[in-house]
Specification:
This protein is 48% helix and 16% strand. The chain is built from 5 helices and 8 strands.
């Protein structure tokens, strides 16, 4: 019997404590190092743009940070969620954007494995090949 080493060797690096702070109270499975690095980079970019707006006197950025900070936190949270949830499906961000563009260009027709998927509001028909090609129709009530 073969042993599956991929499950054991491809585990992500996780952090369970930062100094004296135990993270397992908040995150029972630890925090991935890739998440910490990504969050640090994005937070660093936000802090750097804030610092540049103060140094060079860019009024648009300084007003953005001063008055609409809750909007920035919201977009930062949504951006982090989108970027890190893509790693669950093993997708790249560029393929995600391309898929969104193609779906919009097709008129939001949903497909799974190359076949159209009907929405609950729209009628559709399908062919049952096991019953000699009989065509079934479904209409919403």
């Amino acid at each position: 019997m073969e042993y599956n080493y991929t499950r054991e060797w491809k585990q992500p690096h996780k952090v369970y404590a930062i100094g004296a702070i135990n993270l397992s109270r908040f995150f029972s499975e630890g925090v991935k190092v890739s998440f910490l690095i990504g969050f640090g980079v994005i937070a660093g970019l936000v802090f750097g743009s804030w610092l540049l707006s103060l140094v060079f006197g860019i009024t648009f950025l300084s007003n953005l940070f001063r008055q609409t900070w809750i909007v920035l936190i919201f977009f930062l949270s949504v951006g982090l969620w989108v970027l890190f949830s893509l790693s669950w499906d093993k997708k790249r961000f560029s393929s995600f954007l391309m898929g969104r563009f193609k779906a919009t260009a097709r008129g939001n027709t949903q497909t799974e494995h190359g076949h159209k998927v009907g929405f609950m509001e729209t009628p559709f028909q399908f062919v049952d090949k096991r019953k000699k090609g009989r065509v079934y129709q479904w209409k919403p009530k």
